C-alpha cells in the first residue's frame, strides 16, 4: 500500500506538470458482438508519456467481457474480428493481438522471450516503421502463419550483436523457423499487455488455416484480444454506443 500511494503521488505530480499529456490515452472497449449477454464499458488509462504512434488518441485496445458467464477478457473469434473491421463502422483498421512466451533458438544462446502474433496490418495500423528492413504489410497476409518475423532493437543487440546484415537470417521460435525481415527502432514499445517484459518478436497470421480451426467458428474465441484505430472524428463513447447497438441487433 505504501508503494501504491507513492506511485499515485508521483503520477498526479506528473499530470500537474504535464497537463497536455492527459489527452493521450489508451482505452479498453468491452465488446461482445454476437453475445447478447455482454456488458459494455469503457476504461481510460492515462499514460505519463506520449505514445510513439501516429495519432495515438485514436488507438483502442479491444477486449470482450461476458458477464452472463462471469468471464472477463473472454477473447474473440476470427469472425468477430472480421465483423469489427467490416460491419461495425467503428474501426478504420483492427488487428489481432496474441501475446506468446517463446523459446528462441538457432543462435549462439537460446533465450526465452515475449512474442506477439498479430494481423498483417498491425504496424501500418500503428503508423510504425522499422528502423532496419521493413514491417509486415498486406502482401504478407497468409491464411496461416507467415514465415517471417520483425524483431525489437533489444533482441537485435542481444542475439545478433546489432549486425547490420541481420535481415534474412533465421531464428526458431519454439518449433517454427522464421526469417528476420525487420528491426524496430529503439523507441518502439508494443502497446497493450505483455506477460512480464517488452515484446521482442512479432509474427503474423490470418488465423483461418492450420493450426487454426477450419472453417472459422464464431463460438471459438481463440484470439485473446485486438487493437484498433477508430474512424477519424469518432469518440470512444460514440464507438461504444455503435457497438452496443450492433450487439443488440445480433
In short:
This protein has one domain. The chain is built from five helices and eleven strands. The chain has helices spanning 2-17, 78-86, 122-126, 153-160, 236-249, and strands spanning 25-30, 42-46, 59-63, 91-105, 111-118, 132-133, 148-151, 170-173, 176-183, 201-204, 225-230.
Keywords:
alpha+beta, six-stranded mixed barrel, 5 helices, 27% strand
Percent of residues in helices = 10-25%
Number of strands: 11
List the total number of helices. 5
Number of domains: 1
> How confident is the prediction overall: mean pLDDT?
78
Structural write-up:
The protein is an alpha+beta fold. It has one domain. Strands 4-5-10-7-9-8 form a 6-stranded mixed beta barrel. Strand 4 and strand 5 form a beta hairpin. It starts with a helix and ends with a helix. The N terminus is likely disordered.
Strand and helix map with partners:
Blueprint: H1 2-17, E1 25-30, E2 42-46, E3 59-63, H2 78-86, E4 91-105, E5 111-118, H3 122-126, E6 132-133, E7 148-151, H4 153-160, E8 170-173, E9 176-183, E10 201-204, E11 225-230, H5 236-249
Parallel strand pairs: 1-3, 5-10, 7-9
Antiparallel strand pairs: 1-2, 3-11, 4-5, 4-8, 4-11, 6-9, 7-10, 8-9
Amino acid at each position: 500500500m505504501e508503494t501504491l500511494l507513492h506511485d499515485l503521488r508521483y503520477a498526479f505530480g506528473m499530470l500537474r506538470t504535464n497537463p497536455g499529456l492527459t489527452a493521450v490515452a489508451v482505452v479498453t472497449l468491452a465488446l461482445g458482438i454476437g453475445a447478447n449477454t455482454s456488458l459494455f464499458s469503457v476504461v481510460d488509462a492515462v499514460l505519463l508519456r506520449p505514445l510513439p504512434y501516429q495519432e495515438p488518441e485514436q488507438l483502442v485496445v479491444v477486449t470482450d467481457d461476458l458477464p452472463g458467464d462471469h468471464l472477463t477478457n473472454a477473447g474473440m473469434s476470427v469472425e468477430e474480428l472480421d465483423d469489427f473491421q467490416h460491419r461495425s463502422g467503428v474501426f478504420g483498421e483492427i488487428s489481432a493481438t496474441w501475446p506468446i512466451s517463446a523459446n528462441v533458438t538457432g543462435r549462439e544462446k537460446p533465450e526465452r522471450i515475449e512474442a506477439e502474433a498479430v494481423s498483417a496490418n498491425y504496424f501500418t495500423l500503428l503508423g510504425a516503421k522499422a528502423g532496419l528492413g521493413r514491417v509486415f504489410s498486406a502482401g504478407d497476409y497468409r491464411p496461416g502463419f507467415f514465415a517471417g518475423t520483425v524483431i525489437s532493437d533489444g533482441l537485435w543487440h542481444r542475439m545478433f550483436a546489432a549486425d547490420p546484415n541481420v535481415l534474412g537470417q533465421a531464428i526458431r521460435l519454439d518449433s517454427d523457423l522464421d526469417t528476420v525481415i525487420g528491426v524496430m527502432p529503439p523507441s518502439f514499445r508494443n502497446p497493450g499487455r505483455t506477460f512480464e517484459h517488452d515484446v521482442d518478436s512479432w509474427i503474423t497470421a490470418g488465423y483461418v488455416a492450420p493450426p487454426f480451426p477450419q472453417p472459422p467458428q464464431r463460438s471459438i474465441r481463440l484470439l485473446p484480444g485486438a487493437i484498433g484505430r477508430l474512424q477519424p472524428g469518432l469518440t470512444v463513447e460514440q464507438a461504444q454506443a455503435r457497438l452496443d447497438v450492433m450487439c443488440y441487433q445480433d
